[in-house]
Amino acid sequence: MEKFLTLTSTVVPLPIENVDTDQIIPARFLKATDKNGFGDNLFADWRYNKDGSPKADFVLNNPTYSGSILVGGKNFGSGSSREHAAWAIDGYGFKVVVSSFFADIFQNNALNNGVLPVVVSAEFLAEIFTSVNADAKTTLTIDLENQTITNNATGKSETFAINAYKKECLLNGLDDIDYLLSKKDLIEAFEKGK
Amino acid sequence: MKTLFDKIWDAHVVSLVENGPTQLYIDRHFCHEVTSPQAFNGLRARGLKVFRPELTTMTADHNTPTINQDKPVQDPISRNQLDTFAKNASEFNMPLFYPLGHAKNGVVHIIGPENGFTQPGMTIVCGDSHTSTHGAFGTIAFGIGTSEVEMVLATQCILQSCPKTMRITFNGKLGAGVSAKDLALYMISKLTTGGATGYFVEYAGEAIRSMSMEERMTVCNLSIEMGARGGLIAPDQTTFDYVKGREFAPKGEEWDNKLAYWQTLKTDEDAKFDKELVFESADIQPMVTYGTNPGMGMGIKESIPTLESVDETGRISYQKSLDYMGFEAGEKLEGKAIDYVFLGSCTNGRIEDFRVFANFVKGKKKAENVTAWLVPGSWMVEKQIREEGLYDILTEAGFALRQPGCSACLAMNDDKVPAGKYAVSTSNRNFEGRQGPGARTILAGPLVAAAAAVTGRITDPRS
User: Fold this and answer.
1) Residue B257 contacts A, CB cutoff 8 Å
2) Do B144 and A113 touch (CB under 8 A)?
């Protein structure tokens, strides 16, 4: 996994609530047996017409907005546990997703793929949308070490929560399997005691 | 002074990561073809074996046709995924592998309980959010991502933060013609799709206690639709009677020992939950959904909420949702024409659901304008449908039976509802495009689905 330190980027705003993982990557794209290529179908049904041409009114097709930070409405990533949603977001080039509320499984899946979910207050989220609306060149800065997110248009910052273990994993590019494999003796002892 | 959840969780803690999650031991892992190939690839890349192959049960269900299962799968990409699943089972020496056509094949959350893999007190995971179904037996069961599937295959453990606990109590009994699905859709409409995020829910109260295991599975299945990590119900005599005698259930002395332990699996009287909610079962009516998430549900006689009744920040999303469905705020759905009916899925694809549906359509005829897909959850359910004479009743009423699988619940196969068409569906999600691009899903229980199938309209089954 790639290490994550700090990031300053323009953002892609998606001010829709309850964005479920079926929208992030529809089920018919889950037939692959590897992790590649899902970025091309990120938000496929919102992004493309039936004939495959881009829908002009969807934000990913609007050249005004770009960057490696996706900003979504509350309850982002609800529904299916498909990790393909995290692969699609990562594959498209997003490194951070900002929302006021994330579904549990999506949050774990994102972290397991080095994509950082940043939970902000509802007010801070609304302000990001206002700033980006006023100026598409608005940038956010995410500093993982200090757990801060800054809206560079307003200069306002918020701290965000992240589990200390997960933070270490992201900062060092480690994953849970490395950790669990180092605990094999504990697992075998646990099984004996059952 | 522990909750049922705490008792099971504590019995599975292998270690605590400093300032981090818990290393949790997993008793049973269910595995299907869609969310596992990248996990097996991960094992290969690291040169690892499966740590405890006998603790993983594998069945193909999500990406499978529901006709002609004895013939080669037509879609080459789907066929490749199924072949990959078989190759992984063989290469990693997985003893519990149930491919297409196997007598034990079926939807993962249906074959687990019916074969006795699911037992009280267990920790259960699967790369599927509806793993919460198994909570009906008093288990900690939840959906995981593919990275976590890889962890379980490699170590039989995962790392999880301990969720908060919530108890939802349903006082009194459900009314006639009101099902477990209605209870669940009612609850989700009150909590919204994110209302239980971060929590593990225990269901309690008279309505829950008087339910069969099939009904309890329907309720626990839908826990994820309000964001809950999972939902569980304390095991009781109904549970023990269901488990006893099933192929992989304990036998003889082992049964006696397990039973003695299972009987201790209940929340202590003075245990504290982080949140408690109470509903009156008598308030619950047959439910339908009108929007594009399972929280957008209402009693079948009610009207779609007005835009003004929705929180201001959510109005754009709300209107988008109604536009997709072709509905207007304030209108009633009862009497609206529909095009498709789907009976099946891990939510309502069990034998009882087919009994309810068949009992309603007995002596009636399927409406001509309705395409009905009746998909048993497993071959065992299919066999029982024939043995109980339900097959004849359904055929007589103009319905055909398809072969087991997830089918139109997520429409990965050819069972897709066409764009713009309305489907009354007993499955679990009405998201945009869930049943096919542009498809409009109205979630309901098997009885409302049966009434829609014979009238061609959204119909209150009690009238």
Assistant:
1) no
2) no
What is the token pair recorded at B45? Answer: 């890349």
Give CA angle at B241 (B238, B244), nearest 5°. 145
Question: Which CA distances in Å does B287 have to B144, B148, B182, B340?
Answer: 29, 35, 5, 17
| Bridge partners, residue A54, by sequence | A48
Answer whether B317 touches A (CB < 8 Å).
Answer: yes
Q: Is B417 on the interface with A (CB under 8 A)?
A: no
Sign of CA dihedral A69, A73, A77, A80: negative
Which residues are within 8 A (CB) of A139 and not within 5 positions of it... i.e. 6 or more apart?
Answer: A8, A9, A10, A11, A67, A152, A153
Mind listing the pLDDT tens digit for each residue in B36-68? 999 999 999 999 999 999 999 999 999 999 999
- Pull the structure tokens for residue B333: 């759905």
Residues of chain B with pLDDT under 50: none
Number of helices and strands in chain A (H, E): 8, 7
**Chain position carrying tokens 């225990």:** B202
Question: What's phi and psi for A14, nearest 5 deg?
Answer: -135, 80
What ipTM does this complex have?
A: 0.96
Percent of chain B residues past pLDDT 70, beyond the cut? 100
Q: How far apart are the first and last CA of chain A?
A: 34
pLDDT, tens digit (0-9, with 9 covering 90-100), for B128-163: 999 999 999 999 999 999 999 999 999 999 999 999
